[in-house]
Amino acid sequence: MPGNSPESAPQSLAHVASSFAAITAVSVRDPFRWLAMGLADLRAAPAASLFYGAAFALMGWAIVFFYGHAYSLTVGLMGGFMLLGPGLAMGLYALSRQREAGEVPRLRPSLTIWRANLSNLAIFALVTGVVFLVWARASLVAFAVFYSSGLPTAADFVRELLSFTNAEFVITYLLIGSCFAAFVFAISVVAVPLMLDRNTDAVSAMLLSIATVAKNPLPMLVWAGLIVALTGLGFATAFAGLVLTVPILGHATWHAYRAMIPPGKT
After folding, report:
1. Which of 2, 86, 104, 232 has the highest local Cβ count within 10 Å?
2. Is residue 220 domain-resident?
3. What average pLDDT does this structure show over 26-37?
């Protein structure tokens, strides 16, 4: 596997170029099949899967508890919550891999799966962490520019999103958020499962993830829409829905990875 030194960048690009042909093209119906397989994994390991879902819900409640008084910051953190999700769901990928291997999915081994490729997972976490910090700053700037007379309350913010009473803010905020989300989605859609499954270096994993999106643009658009819809459902239920939606999405992400990068193809 390529290393992490500066000299490894050309090797990573060459590796991705040689692997592009091996990426499987999927159909726009496949994301729904991945969700069904994710639900099956949840049913096969309910306690372990729901543990991770509950952890995500607790994170959401903690954000509101500590930062609820500053709604602009809360919204930025919730957006960052989605940006960091692919890395935080590693344990769910491990449970799906255990089941795929014919093993009984167990929570304890999944808690330490990150040790298998710690250095490269740390690089990936650093990249997504920097994106999160930039997004948080951009979110605050957007609020400051469009609300010079004072920040909105939570009710005001939701009302404006639904009614478009402050169309300039809503359009700008959604465009900025979409750009950050699209970038993180592109570099992460298969990157973390790939690093866990094959000990791939971070640069190659992120580049191969981008190549996977490039080869499957429409299915990836559908997949991204499903992720946003289910995550949004979790948010809309005061984070309680994340207990179910996060495990389904996490397990489904593993099956998406397996569908687009089958074993032995790269």
Report:
1. 86
2. yes
3. 97
